[in-house]
Every structure is written in C-alpha cells, then in structure tokens.
Amino acid sequence: METTSKQARVPVKRPMLAMLGVLVGAFVGMFSETSLNIALPQLIYALNISTASAQWLVTGYMLVIGIVLPFSSLLTKWFSTRQLVIFGLSDFLLGAIISALAPNFALLLVGRMVQGIATGIILPLMFTLAMQIFSPNKLGAAMGICALVIMFAPAVGPTLTGLILAKLSWNWIFWSFVPFLVIALLAAIRYLPNVGQITRPKLDFPSLFGSIIGFSTLVMGVSFASEFGFGSLIVLALLVIAIITLFFYTKRQLTLTEPILNLRIFKLRDFSVGASLVMIDFAIILSAMYLLPQYIQNGLLLPVALTGIIMLPGGIVNAIISAIAGRLYDKNGATTPVQIGFTLALIGAVMLAFTSTTSSIGYVILAHVILMIGCPLAMSPAQTHALNALNGAQAADGSTIMNTLQQIVGAVATALATLLLTFGESIDPSRKAATAFTTGVHYGIYFTIALIILGLIISLGLRKKEK
C-alpha cells in the first residue's frame, strides 16, 4: 500500500530551484534523442553518407544511453549528486559543441555518443532527486514535471527542428543546445544539493561487463532489426548474445549482496505493476509517434514542415496533461488516472486506425490530441506509484531500472512498428503508393492498440492509495 507523510527525505528550502539544472539537462537530452530524425536527409547530403550510416546518429546515441543507464545507481554510490550532475551537464555541453563543429560524419558520431553519456547519467538522477527532496504529498506534482520533460521534448522535437532547418544549417540544431546547457550548469552549481550516501561498494567486474555486453547487443540487435529484419544473421547473433548475457547478468544480480542493479525490487507488487505500465505507455508513445509523421508525409502526401505543425497541438496537450496528471495522483492515487488515460489512448489509436489517404488534417490532429491526453495521464501516476513503493535506498535502483527499460522497450517498439508497417505496405503491390503505405501504418497502429489493451488489463492490478 502507498503511504503518506509530510516530511521530505532530504529537506530543501527551494526544491524546484534545486531541480532546475537536471530538468533542463534532461529536456535537452530527450530533445536530442528525437531531433535528428527530421534532419537525416540534410545530413546525408551535407556529409555525403549513406542512409544506413546516418541512422547511427540516432541509434548510436540510444546505444550509449542504454549502456550508461544501468550504472547510474552504482555511480550514485561512488560520487555525489553534484559531481554527477555537473559532470553530466559539462559532458553534454562538450558533446554539443563537438557535434556543432563536426566537419565529417565520424566526429559528429563521436559528439553524439558523448551526449549519450550525459543523458544516461542525468535522466535517472532527475527522478531520484525528486524522490528525495519533495515531500510525499507534493511528489505527484513533481513527478508530473519530470514526466513533462520526458514526454514533451520528443513531442516538440520535430517541430522545433523543422523550424531551425527552414532557415539554418543542421549545425544549429546542436548550437541551440548550448545556451540551455549553460543555464542548467550554472543552476546546478548554485542550487543543487547532495542527496544519498556515498558508500563506494566493491565493483563486480563480471556484472560490469555483462551489463555492457548484454544491453549494448540488445539495443544494437533491435536497432538493426528495423533495417534488416529479425531474420538477419547479424540480428539473430546479436539477440542471442544479448539474451544469454542478460540471463546470467540477471541471475548474478539476484545473488550478489550489493548488485549493480537491484532487481529484487521487482518482488514488490506495486513497483512491478507501476513499472510495467510505464514501459507499456512508453512503447505506445514511441510506436505511434514513429508511425504518425510518416503517415502524414507518405499517406496524406503533406510536406515535412507541415508535418511538424500538425503534430504540435498534441505536443502542447501532452505537456499540459503531464503536469496535471501528477496532481491527480496526489489526490486520488494511480488507479483512476491510469485507467482513464489508457481508455482515452485507445480511442485516439482506434481513430488513427481508421485514417485514409483522404482523411482531413483536423481529424488527424484530433486523434493525435486524444492519444496525447491519454498517454501522459497514465504515465506520471504509474511512475509515481512504482517509485513510491520503494524506500530511499531503493529509489535510485527503481529510477535506473525504469529508465533503462524505457530505452530498450522504445527500440523494440519502434522495430516492431517498422516490421508491421513494411508487411502491411507489401500486401498488395498493385495499389497506389500512398494507399499501400497507409495500410502499412494501420498494421503498425494495430500493434499500438494491442499495447493499450495490455496496459488496461495490467492497470486492474493497481492498488488504491491509502488515505
């Protein structure tokens, strides 16, 4: 059961100012994860590279995040909060400048991977810090702000990137990060407190290598699958290595006295249910947001600039609901907002499944907006429900686990949506290209609908908030 008290674990006079640096850093990190998608054609031309090479600017970034995230809990036991956040923001600033000045693909990829290290450090620290410095009766609102960062940045990324590319070169995408990162760094130096305790546990090198090999091969395998298919020999080899490695890694974490990742917290029912709902919700968002821009361009045959504008209302609604959802949790717990959220998401997804090559822009915007009301309405309460089941020492592990799995689940969801899109598009080669592509999008949306129904079923296991 969830319990309430008035005292924060680490009392801070101005907690929002303490959070400012990590919130801005996490926003830039999530924005960076999606901002290059719309810029890839320009990068292919400017750097004279292939499409497969250009994709590594996206997958390479996610790969580094997936490698670093599992170590975030361990890092908090070896370094102070201030050391980690200040290093992460400085690292991100360096990576952004390297990318902005990069004269070739190789240096640009290095810059992207440097940024990935920073995002992998800062993202879990944002939730851990919130859990420590906000009192339980205000935690839902704080987690709503965190959810706003995670969900709003990818939603507005294509629109903002499109506006930049309309007037400036691709380098300015990275230059645009710099002033925000400087502000975040100065705020962290001035206001950020230290939370948690430095215990410097003994390093378990088999776990370190198992984590690096297991998570990296899994992310690489799923990323390659979206291009080559799951039947590819290299994809199968990577996934087999990942499964075997992660099996032994998991077994070792459950037997170690001080594991790198405390997987024992999955024995706590409230955490398991809440974390599962967060993963499903994230998969719903990424699969739908991967399919929708492509449908607008290749099904409705509208230009890229207009695509960003069409998706903007949903992004704005996403931000508003993310903040409101946290306050709903403070008053009512997770059950009601989560179940209403998944129900609304189901309505929006079904509307998208009935689109055609002649659907109106207004209809598409309405379906997207309904989906973007439902997903954040479920996300923040589910996440707070999961983390509230943990004590202070477990909070960093819970945050790390959820953020790591989000990257992995996101890659898997995108790969499956791509496969279904390709399958649906190839069913009847005699049809017009736009019609065939729209059918493919429908197959991808069916996967999104299946995820929503699964989320609704699991949400029945949420327990009521204790008064």
UniProtKB/TrEMBL annotation:
Residues 18-467 form the Major facilitator superfamily (MFS) profile domain. InterPro entries: EmrB-like, MFS, MFS_dom, MFS_trans_sf. It is a multi-pass membrane protein. Gene3D superfamilies: MFS general substrate transporter like domains, Multidrug resistance protein D. GO terms for cellular component: plasma membrane. It is found in: Cell membrane. One of its GO terms (molecular function) is transmembrane transporter activity. Keywords: Cell membrane, Membrane, Transmembrane, Transmembrane helix, Transport. The chain crosses the membrane at residues 56-75, 84-107, 113-134, 141-166, 172-193, 205-224, 230-250, 271-292, 304-326, 338-355, 361-379, 400-423, 443-462. Its main location: membrane. PANTHER family: LINCOMYCIN RESISTANCE PROTEIN LMRB (PTHR42718:SF43), MAJOR FACILITATOR SUPERFAMILY MULTIDRUG TRANSPORTER MFSC (PTHR42718). This is Lincomycin resistance protein LmrB. It comes from Ligilactobacillus murinus DSM 20452 = NBRC 14221. The lineage of its organism: Bacteria, Bacillati, Bacillota, Bacilli, Lactobacillales.
